[in-house]
């Protein structure tokens, strides 16, 4: 089903987004990898999924699986076909269980994708990252590749269903060197510092203004 999804959606993605992709050499051809990106639009994960050869599994908010109507049906079909994992961000225990699923994905040698901001940017700025990405990285030893997206908010503006023609830039940055910190995922101060380093990398390469507060829906 995943291959069918890519075949069905690739023409629209290339027609509307005309993606310019850089840095794919930073994504290993095998083994566990964490892709951590900025989040501008609903279509961010779609572009990342379709420009890479390897399959990427994202954590997706559970609303994408429970929305009613035709739009909800289409979203549910896409996220299910793409093998994405629903996460209930309102309940800490359920969110923690989703992170455990992410660990399982990485232990299987696969790619896990995450948007550390936790939600789409409400105004185009980059917001403070949540620490789950780095906690999982230190627990599993998986490399973290920062992914910078630009232009997706013009192709599919927040709150809009219809796409607009534009140009999307996707840059896979060199992975963060976290080897010396492996196994220290319980050190909250360290995890916070590395998360801030990750967000600084995303801000530097995306050109977004950084806001040191969490984004709200």
Question: How does this structure look, described?
Answer:
With 217 residues, this protein is α/β, with parallel strands linked by helices. It has one domain (2-58, 111-211): Glycerol-3-phosphate (1)-acyltransferase, CATH 3.40.1130. It has helices at 2-17, 44-51, 63-66, 69-81, 92-107, 132-140, 152-155, 188-206, and strands at 20-22, 33-37, 56-61, 85-87, 111-114, 126-127, 144-150, 169-172, 210-211. It is globular and about 45 Å long. The strands form two sheets. A seven-stranded mixed beta sheet has the order 1-8-7-2-5-3-4, with helices on both faces. Strands 6-9 form a two-stranded parallel ribbon. Helices cover 41% and strands 17% of the residues. Helix 1 (2-17) crosses helix 2 and helix 5 (92-107) runs parallel beside helix 6.
């Amino acid at each position: 089903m995943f291959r069918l999804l890519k075949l069905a959606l690739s023409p629209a993605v290339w027609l509307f987004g005309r993606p310019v992709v850089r840095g794919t050499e930073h994504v290993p051809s095998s083994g566990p990898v964490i892709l951590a990106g900025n989040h501008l639009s609903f279509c961010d994960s779609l572009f990342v999924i379709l420009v890479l050869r390897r399959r990427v599994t994202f954590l997706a908010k559970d609303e994408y699986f429970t929305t009613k109507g035709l739009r909800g049906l289409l979203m549910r079909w896409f996220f299910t076909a793409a093998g994405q994992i629903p996460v209930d961000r309102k309940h800490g225990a359920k969110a923690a269980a989703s992170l455990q699923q992410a660990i399982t994905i990485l232990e299987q040698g696969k790619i896990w994708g995450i948007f550390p901001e936790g939600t789409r940017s409400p105004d185009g700025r980059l917001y403070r990252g949540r620490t789950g990405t780095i906690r999982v990285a230190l627990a599993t030893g998986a490399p973290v590749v920062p992914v910078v997206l630009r232009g997706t908010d013009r192709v599919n503006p927040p709150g809009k269903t219809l796409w607009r023609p534009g140009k999307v830039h996707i840059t896979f940055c060199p992975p963060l060197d976290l080897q010396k910190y492996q196994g220290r995922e319980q050190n909250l101060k360290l995890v916070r510092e590395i998360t801030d380093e990750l967000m600084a990398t995303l801000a530097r390469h995306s050109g977004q203004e950084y806001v040191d507060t969490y984004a709200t829906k």
